[in-house]
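Hey L., structure's done. Input below.
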Amino acid sequence: MLERAREAGVARILTVGCDLDDSRRALEAAAEFGLQASIGIHPHEAKDAPADVAGAFDALLRDAAVPAVAIGETGLDYYYTHSPPETQRAVCIAQIRYASARNLPIIFHQRDAYADFRAILREEFKPRQRGVVHCFTGDAAQARTFVEEFGLVLGIGGVVTFKTAGALREAVREVGIDRIVLETDSPYLAPVPHRGKRNEPAFIAATAASLATLFEATVPEIVARTNAVAATLFGP
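Output:
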């Protein structure tokens, strides 16, 4: 998989932690394969989060061979509610505060919880903080709110290539190429023409090509500009 990514021109991969064990594996994989990693507790897993999130994260990082470049995936998901909404909110807030104290960017997940998520951002997310709304699939109004009110960037993946994703494409046009980063959400949401397959980093090339068409730009220009956004977000 990593060799296919290299052949497709992918030079940087961030593997994302979704609970404590998964975050530990992400850090180990990053150390072994020259990747980057985040640590976080996904809203689905919030019900199993430790009482002391900060202490658990500190312990993870103390034992890791590489640093975490971000906190997350964290946020709210009311579509499945695998964890109670009030628990999701508490665990999300704990991670925002942890990231703020350590000057780390945040990878946010938001699904069917826009009003509560926006309320948490207004209360907890500091102007100096950095973050990305991963796998953004909202409309132009939501996109403007995240970008203009909170200074967030949008993570755009394979969904933007889907025939039915006209509203998402309009949202991406609205905020512009310099406010998005490319992502895969592997192993989910493979872009056209790979839809239906297990997604993987090499397929990000298809998303870049779709955005080049959308913005009437070249693929190298899309890659360069979204890479610059990612470098500002996560570091060079």
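The chain has a mean pLDDT of 97. The beta strands are 14-15, 36-39, 70-77, 106-111, 131-133, 153-156, 180-182.

-- N.
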